C-alpha cells in the first residue's frame, strides 16, 4: 500500500460523480497502481525472489546510496509539510484522525490476539506492526488530491511519535 496502493485507492475514490461505475474506478486504480515505479520494482523483485534470481552485486552497490537516503528524504518531506499552527477546527480534525488510527490499531491487535491461527511470536509481531507509524507518503498524497497537507504532515509526525512509544512499550511488555 505504501508504494502505490494507497495513492491508487485515493485516486480511484476521488474521481467524482462522472465515474460512478465500478469498472471506471477499477481501471483508474489498476492504471495508477502499475504506473507506480516502487510498486513495479517490488513486483519484479518478488518475481525474481520466487524464481531464485538475485541482483548482481554491482547493481546493489550502485543503488545503495539512493536506498540509504530514503529515510532521510521521507522525514525531510514530512518536516516541510508540517504546520504547527493548529486552530480549534484543525485540532478537532487531528484528534479525530488520531482517534481513528488508534481505534483501528486496537481492533487489529484484538484480531491478532483472538483470530489469527498462528503461534505466539507471529501474533506478537503482527500486534507490534499494527501500531507502526503512518506511511510517510500520506502527506504527499494529501497534497496531490488538494487536501490539507499541513494537517496530514502533523498527523503523520504524531503517528511517528505515538508509534515509537507504543511499539517500544509493546516490545517491553511482550518480551519480543
Could you describe the 3D structure shown?
There is one protein chain. The chain is mainly α and 176 residues long. The chain contains nine helices and no strands. Helix 1 (5-13) runs antiparallel to helix 2 (22-34), helix 5 (70-81) crosses helix 9 and helix 6 (88-114) packs antiparallel against helix 7 (120-130).
Q: Determine the N-to-C terminus distance.
A: 26 Å
Mean pLDDT: 85
Described by strand count, sense and barrel closure, the largest sheet is: none
Annotation field: number of helices: 9
**Strand tally, please?**
0
Which percent range fits the helix content? over 70%
Q: What gross morphology would you assign?
A: globular
Strand fraction:
under 5%
Order of helices and strands: HHHHHHHHH
Category by helix and strand content: mainly alpha
Spans of at least 5 consecutive residues with low confidence: none
Rg for CA atoms? 19 Å
